[in-house]
Amino acid sequence: MTLPSSPKKVVVLALPGARELDLASVLDVFTQANWQLAPNPAYQVEVVTSDAKGRVTGMTGLQLVGNVPYFACTGGIDTLLIAGGVSLVMSDPEEPSLVTWLRNRAFECRRVGSICTGAFVLARAGLLDGKRATTHWEYAKELAIRFPKITVDSDPIWTCDGNIYTSAGATSGIDLCLALVEEDHGNKLALDVARAMVMFLYRPGNQAQFSVLLSAESAVSPSIRKLQAWLPEHLTEDLSVPALARRAGMSPRTFQRVFTGEVGKGPSLHVEELRIEAVRRKLELTSLRLSEIAEQCGFASCDVMTRRFRFHLKVKPLDYRARFRSSIGPGNSLRKGHPPSALVPNQR
Q1: Catalytic, out of 109, 116, 160, 297
Q2: Which end of the chain has fewer CB atoms at under 10 Å, N or C?
Q3: Which residues pair with 69 in a beta bridge?
Q4: Dihedral, CA atoms, 238, 242, 247, 250, nearest 10 degrees?
Q5: What residues form DSSP beta bridges with 47?
Q6: Is 302 a catalytic residue?
Q7: Is the pTM here over 0.85, yes or no?
């Protein structure tokens, strides 16, 4: 980790109805980074609003006061972030002068990003045209419909396209800001900040917004619902359709039809997705060999696991592990790729 030569200016735009968590998460990450680097702060953080007195009412009604109104924000901006809020989805609260300011300042910034539905503000300013972007899963379809020039991906917790960053809802803003800290000052500082914030783990951007269990529809039939709860703890057992049908007390044909209708996907695909998610957790949290992971997650072989992992996540298991444990050197950009850290030895 290299100590900062001078603080980078991070500006967070908070509009009426901004979600307080979106705003606080950004401030907390960069402030924690400064504390970790004391007495050599890495960031100068400012909150700007559209109100002449710098005031803004948050989504829950909390009265907030920023540093300055946007038009009084002077000096160069390194990173410009937009806090989200439900009111930003359907309404167009930005006055023309604010949109003009946003466009002009965005072109001058090294990085521009949004937290949650802040993506709608970037979209209305035309800054996401031709870009891949994400937002809170609940509003991803609306973003895609209203702004067809954007390639909306509702799955990842954050994305990066060029110098434009977008993130999903709530705590994913923390993950995005940790990634920005990592890009600036390396993996160690990002992990130190994550530990200071008592985070369970620091998630890379390609993590899905939902786990398989959360994204699957809840079954109506008690036997299917009971089976859904049983599956994650028995991934090494025979989970073929006939075996699952017997456990559910149905014929294979009836089971296939009922499960697909109630869960929203076929039983074989659901089982494979559960196994892939289990593999991801093993890669993130253990140093097990791939052959050991394959065995513990119910795959017939390491080769089979690798092929299915690549099919679902478009990345090799060891590359996924390397990314999760990567060490992005100061000055290296997430946009240009990054050198993976040394892999755990004796992997195969």
Answers
A1: 116
A2: C
A3: 49
A4: 170
A5: 12
A6: no
A7: no
